[in-house]
Write a structure and sequence with these properties.
Pfam families: gag-asp_proteas (PF13975). InterPro entries: Aspartic_peptidase_AS, Peptidase_aspartic_dom_sf, Retropepsin-like_bacterial, TPR-like_helical_dom_sf, TPR_rpt. One of its GO terms (molecular function) is aspartic-type endopeptidase activity. There is one protein chain. The protein is α+β, with helices and mostly antiparallel strands. Among the domains are: 15-111; 331-458, Acid Proteases (Cathepsin D, subunit A, domain 1, Beta Barrel), CATH 2.40.70. The chain contains 16 helices and 14 strands. It has a 6-stranded mixed β-barrel with strand order 6-7-12-8-11-10. A 4-stranded antiparallel beta sheet has the order 1-2-3-4, with helices on one face. Helix 1 (15-32) runs parallel beside helix 2 (94-111). It is elongated, with a radius of gyration of 41 Å.
Length: 464
């Protein structure tokens, strides 16, 4: 039978000593394991059987059999499959038989209750520690690493149960994600939202929320990748461009960040309502690229978009800081002048762009100088080489091309290398006889003041 003799007990030893010694032998065999035979010996009576955790099909057999040659004793044979093979012999008298049966029952109770050798052991708990019905949504959404105690929250259990039966239940997903974020599981929340959007579609709000989580955990490459998807589907949505600009800034890709920041400003139908952070972050990107003159102009733009901001302390401090570092050439902005105006009427001005005169509306609410396609062609602006973007206007979406005017001049006031946008369509969006809008990409380089009967423009005074 191969190493099954075990320890032979002398008749004079106390029966309970035999029990304790036998239990120690069982433990040793369960840990080391030598036998793979799971069948009880012929002629044995199976007293009890119990599963162990040694293998998926392990059970302990406690057998009582009479010795084949002499009927003067009994042998307790314990055999586990495959890890136990031990025998305990004792005299065949009534007391010993009673102790043998007791020993078998004790051993059986310590391990488990009834089995036969074909009964598999119950599977161990999964790492999610979640009830079986919830395992599928947890694994599908990549949430296996969340602690058991956190999964026990009623709100999470309810949402997971709903997602288990209806995997594309957006209401359940919308309830689950904030719960995960509140507990600090932003990575898991982002992954769950992205997976849900991939599998169920029509969930751009979830993707945008995921980008916010990715920014919080500083996974900037993934934030950029998801933002790219969103921008491809929603080119005029400023929120997607803004989050991508932030991710670019954090990875020191300042040129890409600046392009997105400027488009956020250009795409906005009402730049006055944009958060101050859009302008200050744009200025920071410009400063990182060494464009301190542009940085000062961007902050000045934010201040001039709303008259209540003209004396804003933060804005004035930033402008002063950038102007101290600037090395602007005279061509960046020069001159000063004053112009008449009629009260409560649109201000029209004769403006030269690359030496070609046109009629422009002076519009402090326009973030960039905008011109018609016909005038751009007259002025020799290479707009077809620029990016084509969709902008939101009072009349809806319209396509424009980005470009650069070499010089814009209004009487004694001039600026070089001024960003512009050119209408893609042939029809003017500004009204009959109007060639464009004189917006903040020009005006923000200067100090402007508007009175009831005149307005003035001049190069900003520098301290010291």
């Amino acid at each position: 039978m191969g190493d099954v003799a075990g320890v032979h007990h002398r008749q004079q030893q106390a029966p309970m000593d035999q029990v304790h010694h036998g239990r120690e032998k069982i433990t040793d065999r369960l840990e080391t394991g030598n036998s793979t035979d799971t069948r009880p010996p012929p002629g044995s009576a199976v007293v009890a059987a119990a599963p162990t955790a040694a293998s998926p099909r392990v059970c302990l057999l406690a057998c009582i059999r009479a010795k084949s040659s002499k009927r003067d004793g009994v042998s307790l044979n314990f055999r586990s499959c495959p890890t136990l093979n031990g025998t305990l012999e004792m005299p065949l008298d009534r007391s010993a038989l009673r102790q043998a049966v007791r020993f078998a029952l004790i051993a059986t109770a310590l391990i488990a209750t009834g089995c036969d050798s074909s009964t598999p052991v119950a599977p161990t708990a999964q790492s999610t520690n979640a009830p079986d019905p919830l395992r599928a949504p947890l694994e599908r959404l990549g949430m296996q690493g969340i602690a058991r105690g956190d999964l026990a929250k009623a709100e999470i259990q309810r949402a997971l149960q709903q997602l288990a039966t209806t995997p594309c239940n957006s209401q359940a997903m919308g309830a689950l994600a904030p719960q995960l974020k509140a507990m600090g599981y932003r990575k898991e929340a982002a992954q769950a939202l992205i997976t849900f959007a991939d599998e169920c579609g029509n969930a751009d709000g979830f993707l945008l929320s995921a980008v916010g989580d990715l920014l919080m955990i500083r996974d900037y490459p993934q934030a950029i990748a998801i933002s790219n998807r969103l921008i491809a589907d929603h080119p005029t949505d400023t929120r997607m461009r803004y989050t991508r600009a932030q991710a670019y800034s954090q990875t020191r890709q300042y040129e890409q960040a600046l392009a997105d920041y400027l488009e956020v400003i250009a795409l906005s139908p009402n730049p006055r309502r944009l958060a101050s952070g859009v302008f200050t972050e744009t200025a920071q990107a410009q400063a990182k690229l060494g464009r301190h003159c542009e940085a000062a102009s961007t902050v000045r733009m934010w201040m001039s978009l709303d008259p209540s901001r003209t004396q804003n302390p933060q804005g004035k401090r930033l402008v002063a800081e950038y102007e101290r570092q600037r090395d602007c050439p005279a061509s960046y902005a020069s001159g000063k002048d004053t112009f008449p105006r009629k009260p409560d009427q649109v201000i029209l001005a004769s403006v030269e762009v690359n030496g070609k005169k046109g009629t422009f509306i002076v519009d402090t609410g326009a973030s960039v100088v905008a011109i018609t396609r016909a005038f751009a062609e007259r002025a020799g602006i290479d707009y077809l080489g620029g990016r084509k973007i969709a902008v939101q206007t009072a009349n809806g979406h319209t396509d424009v091309h980005t470009g650069m005017a070499k010089r814009i001049q209004i009487r004694q006031v001039a600026a070089n290398q001024v960003p512009v946008v050119v209408q893609a369509g042939a029809e003017s969006a500004f009204g009959p006889g109007v060639d464009g809008l004189l917006g903040q990409s020009f005006l923000s380089r200067f100090d402007t003041h508007f009175g009831p009967r005149q307005w003035s423009i001049a190069v900003p005074a520098t301290d010291g």
